[in-house]
Write a structure and sequence with these properties.
Elements: H1 2-13, H2 25-34, E1 39-43, H3 69-84, E2 89-94, H4 98-107, E3 112-114, H5 126-142, E4 149-154, H6 156-163, E5 172-177, E6 183-189
Parallel strand pairs: 1-4, 2-3, 2-4
Antiparallel strand pairs: 1-5, 5-6
Helix pairs in contact: 3-4
Length: 192
Amino acid sequence: MKWLTAIVVAALLGLGGPFIGSANAQGVWSQLREDPGLVVLMRHAIAPGGGDPPGFTLGKCSTQRNLSAEGRSQARSNGREFREQRVPIDAVLSSRWCRAVDTAKLLGLGTARPKSSLDSVFTASQQVSDRKKRQTEQIIRNHRGNSGVLVLVGHQANIIDLTGVAPNSGGAVIVRADKNGNIKVLGQIPPP
């Protein structure tokens, strides 16, 4: 239930930063084009339901929540927006959950590579959640100075743990590691 508490706290405190899509949209897209040290934490596209069904098996998509037709369209739209905005992409990593892998592939922004540190922490123990958070923070820190934006496709619970922000399906949070290695939220991309 730690994720639910984080959602409520974030909503009450108004955390989240500016949204792309408001008056500052072009400024934020410009920043994504011009600052290769940025990381986009994208929640997988629309996959009806919540959590995973009983009998969930990581390597077997038929046992998992999967993208709906609307979710597949949403993922393609997200990728199209990145291409239209000419955002240089360094790499795309995803959780190993099928809905995240499929979202990453449908973005069409490059070869999507599964990464276990991005796997869902929705029902994970605090110890596992903390370990995945540290691993993902290190990925973000290591990205500073690269030649393009890093896109990490994962799950809402993980993004909340990292940022305190709860994006909707297909939405994203833009972050950067500062010179001291602290992860800073710079804004959000709402779902298409």
